[in-house]
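My current task is to audit a protein record that another person submitted. My question to you is simply how this chain folds and whether the tokens agree. This is what I was given:
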Amino acid sequence: MQSNTAEMQALMAASKQQFLDENMRPGEVYAGLLLGADGARDAHIFVMPGSTSGTWDHCMAWAEELGGSLPTRREQRLLFANAKAVFAPKWYWSCEQHADISAHAWLQNFYDGFQDCLRKSNTGHARPVRRLEI
């Protein structure tokens, strides 16, 4: 029985490595699979290389120029859980504006995992992500 378990684990590890070899770009970090919500498709999340700081508008445009985007709040929770080591212990912008206060956007603190909103004109940090929908 143990050999079957070991063989299954080896097969799963090989399958994951093949997936990463085929889909991860240079400098990226694989954060994991985020299950779709509200009819959205599931997606593999990759943290792209590079970081910047600035206003929310600046960071949004910067991520788009790189071919990525800022992560959603749900994605930020996944990043905190699975890829915290590639983030400085600072506040990072999400791509989501506050639903009731259009001058504010959501951030994730990569020190303690707390999420809050802040005026978009303030300075925050940013790391772009890339999604591979499945």
In short: The chain is about 30% helix and 30% strand.
